[in-house]
């Protein structure tokens, strides 16, 4: 269908203009990072696109409840607590004034509003029709959008709801990008005092004590954020190791820093009961009692449950389209992100691991390119950087030392600490370090792991070096800006070269440097 065929009566979010327009080259279900990218990619390819989301704020978990809010709250906590300045001037500026929940949430709300507006503009600028409502399949090409005017609209949304009518739309191709939601184990009475990562933003006060159930990425990041604000945090997990996918040396350093921040770990504990004895903000702080399988109990003001996520597929009626669903509601896809129904694609959290905003965007772009006959490289790149916004933050790419040992790959390790690096000292981070793993005997970089300020950014040097199959001696031969954290790569590489020499492996012959322009 010709985009221009819609006329110039209005494009983008002015929904009334599109009632007659019911068939599209692509229908995208879900307006999170994957859906927005998928819609934009299709429009760049000149296709007509409708995007459906059940929330009026576009951006999904990426912008509204997950990636950006959690990182904004972390940044706010670091600033409000004075943590970043603690080692800078020899003066502890921490918690000079007790932060209120309004202080804590203000920046997050601004950032979110800015992003929501940007997404609307982005889709409007590329003439994507956006429909707000719950999408369900009626058949392999047809989708019912249940507008909010179907009876659920709150007063606040009445005007908008009048525009959100029920409609049926047809997609020649369809991209499912409905994301994931927090898993809600039945024992938890979610509401005031008991939150998940979606409802946490409804906090009415900053608790003195908090239990975080689940020491996965979400649990660890929020435990650090609240600990920075002065909350006494208990981090509880049924397992006995923190973030088992991390290089163990980095994980141990993180545990030490989290304990230093006052976080109490409770390993191998599973909650068996949770009772709200006093809801917070009803005449005082909350009082929630947790019972564990060990027989112990714990009373805290508030509980955050971060016990994993489930795919948003339960209400899609995928059976009407013939799309198969796997474990935990995940949609299986091929390397081009096609489901078992060839014209229906799926990308982002709804297909599972790695379930990151960054990878969701890449997947959706590849899926849509494939759908319209472009031939992108299939699959997600194997070399994925990971960032974890604990305090301190962690960045890593490639193999851990444990993986190399397990696979029997001979290697040497080089480390460089922030304390020995001028930029590290300027930042006041004396505990951070970079750990590089080089294969023997050729000294090619196989893994980079970093903990400390700005580690999630600085790890991209390691990623590009791994992509270009860079060796330790090449890091050593290059000139790095000073003072920077990038320089850590040079010193870690140098340490690895020395370690290799000690066991009789010579420094490789230099590679000719590229000529300067
Ligand atoms: C607390 C937290 C912190 C995170 N931090 C990071 C991070 O630092 N870095 C990172 O890369 N990733 C992070 N993530 C993960 C990241 O948020 C997700 O991987 C990403 O948002 C997935 O994008 P998506 O488009 O697949 O799905 P989502 O962002 O979940 O968007 C799905 C959209 O689909 C809509 N939808 C669902 N079902 C329907 C339906 N039936 N009809 C209509 N609309 C529907 C939803 O309303 C939603 O807008 C974090 C997640 C959380 C929860
Ligand atoms: N920086 C990032 O990239 C980032 C940050 C936050 C979230 N995310 C996304 O969110 C996902 C992580 O979500 P998550 O942390 O909720 O899940 P998770 O599965 O990573 O961790 C859940 C933890 O809860 C524990 N657990 C579950 N049930 C329990 C119980 N009854 N008692 C005790 N412990 C229990 C598990 O052992 C596990 O350690 C990631 O996969 C990623 O997609 C990414």
TrEMBL record:
Binds 1 FAD per subunit. One of its GO terms (cellular component) is cytosol. Signal peptide: none annotated. NAD(+) binds at residues 214-221, 308. Its cofactor is FAD. It is found in: Cytoplasm. GO terms for molecular function: dihydrolipoyl dehydrogenase (NADH) activity; flavin adenine dinucleotide binding; NAD(P)+ transhydrogenase (Si-specific) activity. Residues 385-492 form the Pyridine nucleotide-disulphide oxidoreductase dimerisation domain. It comes from the Bacteria. FAD binds at residues 71, 178-180, 349. Its EC number is 1.6.1.1. It is an enzyme of class 1 (oxidoreductase). Belongs to the class-I pyridine nucleotide-disulfide oxidoreductase family. This is Soluble pyridine nucleotide transhydrogenase. It comes from Aquisphaera giovannonii. The gene is sthA.
């Amino acid at each position: 269908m010709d985009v221009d065929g819609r006329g110039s009566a209005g494009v983008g979010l002015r929904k009334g203009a599109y009632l007659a327009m019911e068939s599209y080259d692509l229908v995208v279900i879900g307006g999170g990072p994957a859906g927005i990218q998928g819609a934009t990619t299709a429009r760049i390819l000149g296709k007509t696109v409708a995007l459906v989301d059940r929330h009026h704020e576009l951006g999904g978990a990426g912008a509204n409840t997950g990636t950006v809010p959690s990182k904004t709250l972390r940044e706010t906590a670091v600033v409000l607590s004075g943590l970043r300045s603690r080692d800078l001037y020899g003066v502890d500026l921490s918690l000079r004034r007790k932060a209120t929940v309004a202080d804590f949430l203000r920046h997050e709300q601004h950032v979110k509003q800015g992003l929501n507006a940007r997404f609307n503009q982005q889709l409007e600028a590329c003439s994507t029709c956006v429909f707000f409502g719950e999408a369900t399949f009626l058949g392999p090409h047809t989708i019912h959008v249940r507008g909010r005017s179907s009876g659920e609209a709150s007063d606040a949304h009445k005007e908008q709801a009048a525009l959100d009518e029920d409609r049926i739309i047809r997609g020649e191709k369809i991209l499912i990008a409905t994301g994931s939601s927090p898993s809600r184990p039945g024992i938890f009475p979610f509401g005031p005092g008991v939150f998940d990562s979606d409802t946490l933003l409804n906090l009415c006060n900053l608790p003195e004590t908090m239990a975080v159930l689940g020491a996965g990425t979400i649990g660890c990041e929020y435990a650090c954020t609240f600990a920075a604000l002065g909350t006494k945090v208990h981090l509880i997990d049924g397992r006995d190791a923190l973030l088992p996918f991390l290089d163990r040396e980095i994980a141990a350093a993180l545990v030490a820093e989290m304990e230093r921040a006052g976080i109490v770990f409770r390993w191998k504990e599973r909650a068996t009961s949770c009772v709200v004895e006093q809801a917070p903000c009803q005449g005082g702080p909350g009082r929630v009692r947790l019972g564990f399988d060990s027989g112990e109990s714990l009373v805290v003001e508030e509980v955050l449950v971060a016990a994993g996520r489930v795919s948003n597929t339960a209400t899609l009626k995928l059976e009407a389209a013939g799309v198969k669903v796997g474990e935990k509601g995940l949609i299986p896809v091929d390397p081009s992100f096609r489901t078992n129904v060839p014209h229906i694609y799926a990308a982002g959290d709804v297909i599972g691991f790695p379930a990151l905003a960054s990878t969701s965007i890449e997947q959706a772009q590849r899926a849509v390119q494939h759908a319209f006959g472009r031939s992108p490289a299939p699959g997600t790149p194997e070399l994925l950087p990971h960032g974890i916004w604990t305090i301190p933050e962690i960045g890593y790419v490639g193999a851990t030392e444990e993986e190399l040992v397990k696979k029997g790959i001979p290697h040497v390790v080089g480390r460089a600490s922030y304390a020995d690096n001028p930029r590290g000292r300027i930042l006041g981070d004396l505990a951070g370090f970079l750990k590089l793993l080089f294969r023997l005997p050729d000294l090619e970089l196989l893994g980079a792991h970093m903990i400390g300020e700005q580690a999630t950014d600085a790890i991209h040097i390691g990623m590009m070096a791994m992509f270009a199959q860079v060796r330790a001696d090449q890091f050593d031969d290059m000139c790095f800006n000073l003072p920077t954290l990038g320089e850590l790569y040079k010193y870690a590489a140098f340490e690895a070269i020395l370690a290799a020499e000690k066991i009789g492996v010579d420094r490789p012959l230099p590679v000719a440097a590229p000529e300067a322009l």
